[in-house]
Amino acid sequence: MKIEASGVIIAGGGSGLGHASAVALRDAGARVAVLDMNPGAWDGAYAEADVADEHAVERAFDALAPQIGALRVVLNTTGTGHSGLSAGPGRTVTAAGFRRVLDVNTLGSFILAQAAAERMIGSEADDQGERGVIINTSSIVAQEGQIGTAAYAAAKGGIDAMTLPLAREFARYGIRVLTIAPGIYETPMFSNAKGPMVDWLREQVQFPDRPGHASEFAEAVMHLIHNRMFNGTTLRIDGAYRVPPGRSDWWEG
Predict the structure, then answer these.
(1) Active site residues per annotation
(2) CA–CA separation, 213 vs 174, rounded Å?
(3) Which string of b and e fits 124-133 if b means at least 16 CB within 10 Å?
(4) Cis-peptide, bond into residue 188, ω within 30° of zero
(5) Which of 134, 192, 206, 222 is the most buried (most CB within 10 A)?
(6) Helices then strands (H, E): number in the chain?
């Protein structure tokens, strides 16, 4: 898929990985708009929406259409967590909290993919028969969740699981579906966190021996958009990071 002059919507583009990707794609000549709960650091086309609300997403897509033209790329970097112990005296995970994580991470990813595909289907294909690319963001926690991440791991695992069936369904329209599973990245949320668990997480990255930079995530996004053979799969970008079990006492007291 050609990036230059393509219409792009980035959900979660107000900060972190999404913002870095939005800037990189705009610099490469794409017509970029951001969908988020607030614009954050983004200074371009913007619409507010909770990705778990299908009607809000539809309104946001409609509002952004005149500013970006034909929609070619949707990148979803939104997400939320609900961490802690699920049983015992230190239990903090609730059904309501678990449900919200599923709503934002898993259902929100589906809502965005569905809204994107419906608009891409009606657009003109390029000379290779391609109409668009949908990229969701999972996490390596979906495959190797440590103690305290049951809700987040389940929600991100749902994103991984829907990638191939959606790619197979949308293939007849020339639409690719992909998921990126990042490891630890220096986003504002992670960089501002403190404590023994955060120090432990940093130590797990093998090489380079540091958390990833948001610009490196953006580079991966750009390559996935370009390369048509990437489709229907989840790609890890984690510096050979593998998540050990962790410790229950990090969540107690």
Answers:
(1) 152
(2) 31
(3) eeeeeebbbb
(4) no
(5) 134
(6) 9, 7
pLDDT higher than threshold 80 for residue 135: yes
DSSP-derived 3-state class of residue 140: coil
Question: Which among 41, 154, 212 is positioned nearest to 221, based on CA atoms?
Answer: 212
Asked whether the beta carbons of 103 and 85 are under 8 A apart, the reply is no
Question: What is the rounded average pLDDT for all residues in the chain?
Answer: 93
Three-state secondary-structure class, residue 14: coil
pTM for the whole thing? 0.93
Where residue 35 falls among pLDDT bands split at 50, 70, 90? very high
**Alpha-carbon radius of gyration of the chain:** 18
Instruction: Work out the average pLDDT over 214-243.
Output: 95
What does the pLDDT read at residue 182?
Answer: 95
Q: Which of 127, 135, 117 is nearest to 173 (CA)?
A: 117
What one-character DSSP code corresponds to residue 241? -
Query: What's the maximum distance between 2 C-alpha atoms anywhere in the chain?
Result: 61
The answer to whether residues 8 and 33 touch, using CB atoms and an 8 Å cutoff, is yes
Q: Are 148 and 196 in contact (CB under 8 A)?
A: no
Cβ pair 151, 81 in contact under 8 A: yes
Distance CA 157, CA 151 (A): 10
Q: Order of strands, edge to edge, in the sheet holding 45-48?
A: 45-48, 31-36, 7-11, 71-76, 132-137, 175-182, 234-237
Alpha helices, H only, the chain: 16-27, 54-68, 95-101, 108-121, 141-144, 150-170, 188-191, 196-203, 214-226
Residue pair 35/233 in contact by the 8 Å Cβ criterion = no
